[in-house]
Specification:
By secondary structure, the chain is an alpha+beta fold. It has 6 helices and 6 strands; from the N terminus they run H-H-H-H-H-E-E-E-E-E-E-H. Strands 1-2-3-4 form a 4-stranded antiparallel β-sheet. Helix 2 (7-32) runs antiparallel to helix 6 (222-257).
């Protein structure tokens, strides 16, 4: 108990109580962390892959692609003749689907539908990339009147088959533009559209959905708070313990001396 009565030893014990948890955590972090085995795989390795060489999208190829793209949008995207679209898509787009399933309207095809009008079919906004036998385009589509859809841009890729025909290999809508197309005699606006007064007429205006970001839970704060609480309060507890022990020892000493 003489150690506890010494002010120097109490100071040393206090410093040790503060530094010991920090040193233990540093030791565990250094010795338990691992950068991994350098021989382990760090991702897919494709040694034979070579970046395709860009080539110009020639006028002859444009004339060949335009009717295929227009027919694909009319038959598959707009859904006017889905069986006809079978011969316009590449095998990769209809992989795992038989022709009987493709022709069955209840089964569905792997093409996002859109009520495209015949206005400007086969045209594209710009060429995104052009390789040998592959071309990526961005197309701009207009909706059919009264469909309730807005104009849309979509990404499409066409590949050249062995027989020289161009086939659609990829199709994905990207963005909608402007207000939806509502029939002039329609009194009830489609879902997601409200009518705003403009003189004696009513103009359909798209109502954007309010974005509500997802907030992360605060449960993860429990671990760092518990750690800092341990670091801050453990010295206080130790000092309080030593103080009580010192008072008890001094009381017993005075009692025995008397």
């Amino acid at each position: 108990m003489r150690i506890l009565e010494s002010r120097r030893w109490r100071r040393r014990l206090l410093v040790t109580a503060v530094l010991l948890p920090i040193l233990v955590l540093v030791y565990l972090g250094v010795h338990l962390s691992s950068s991994g085995n350098p021989e382990n795989a760090n991702g897919p390795v494709v040694p034979d892959y070579a970046q395709p060489k860009k080539v110009p999208f020639t006028p002859a190829e444009q004339r060949a692609v335009r009717p295929v793209l227009a027919e694909f949008i009319r038959t598959a995207v707009a859904g006017e003749d889905i069986p006809r679209a079978w011969d316009l898509v590449a095998p990769s787009l209809r992989e795992g689907i038989t022709r009987k399933q493709w022709n069955n309207p209840r089964f569905g095809i792997p093409v996002v539908p859109y009520p495209a009008s015949h206005r400007g079919l086969g045209n594209w906004s710009f060429v995104q990339y052009s390789y040998q036998g592959t071309v990526g385009l961005e197309v701009y589509l207009f909706p059919k009147p009264g469909s309730g859809y807005s104009a849309m841009t979509a990404d499409v890729e066409l590949v050249k088959a062995r027989d020289g025909r161009w086939l659609v290999d990829y199709w994905l809508p990207k963005k909608f533009h402007g207000p939806p197309a509502v029939a002039s005699k329609s009194t009830k606006p489609p879902k997601g559209v409200r009518l705003k007064a403009a003189g004696k007429r009513h103009v359909p205006v798209a109502v954007p959905e309010v974005y509500k970001p997802q907030h992360a839970g605060r449960g993860w704060l429990a671990i760092p708070l518990a750690f800092f609480g341990l670091v801050l309060f453990s010295p206080v507890v130790i000092v309080l313990f030593f103080w009580i022990q010192t008072r008890r020892a001094r009381r017993e000493y005075l009692r025995s001396a008397s």
